[in-house]
Amino acid sequence: MDCIYKNPNAHVEDRIKDLLSRMTLKEKIGQMTQIERRVATPSNLRDFSIGSILNAGGSVPFENALSSDWADMVDGFQKAVLDSRLGIPLIYGTDAVHGNNNVYGATIFPHNVGLGATGDPDLAQRIGVATALEVRASGIHYTFAPCVAVCKDARWGRCFESYSEDTNIVRKMTSVISGLQGKPPEGYPKGYPFLAGRNNVIACAKHFVGDGGTERGINEGNTISSYDDLEKIHMAPYPDCISQGVCTVMASYSSWNGRQLHADRFLLTEVLKDKLGFKGFVISDWEGIDRLSKPHGSNYRYCISAAVNAGIDMIMVPFRFEQFLEDLTFLVESGEVKMSRIDDAVERILRVKFVAGLFEYPFSDRSLLDIVGCTLHRELAREAVRKSLVLLKNGKNPEKPFLPLDRNVKRILVAGTHADDLGYQCGGWTKTWYGLSGRITIGTTILDAVKEAVGDKTEVIFDKSPSPDTLATQDFSFAIVAAGEPTYAESAGDNSELVLPFNNNSVISTIAEKIPTLAILISGRPLFLEPHWLEKVDALVAAWLPGSEGGGIADVVFGDYDFTGRLPVSWFRRSKDSQIGNNRLAWAESVLWTNLITSSTCKSFESHVKSRRKQGSILNAPGSVPVEDALSSDWADMVDGFQKAVLDSRLGIPLIYGTDAVHGNNNVYGATIFPHNVGLGATGDPDLAQRIGIATALEIRASGIHYTFAPCVAVCKDARWGRCYESYSEDTNIVRKMTSVVSGLQGKPPEGYPKGYPFLAGRNNVIACAKHFVGDGGTERGINEGNTISSYDDLEKIHMAPYPDCISQGVCTIMASYSSWNGRKLHADRFLLTEVLKDKLRFKGFVISDWEGIDPLSEPEGSNYRYCISTAVNAGIDMVMVPFRFEQFLEDLTFLVESGEVPMSRIDDAVERILRVKFVAGLFEYPFSDRSLLDIVGCRLHRELAREAVRKSLVLLKNGKGPEKPFLPLDRNVKRILVAGTHADDLGYQCGGWTKTKYGLSGRITIGTTILDAVKDAVGDKTEVIYEKSPSLDTLATQDFSFAIVVVGEPAYAESTGYNLELVLPFNENNVISTVAEKIPTLVILISGRPLVLEPHWLEKVESLVAAWLPGSEGGGIADVVFGDYDFTGRLPVSWFRRVEQLPVNAAHNAYDPLFPLGFGLTCNEKKSLN
Question: Quick one: pLDDT at residue 593?
Answer without folding.
Answer: 32
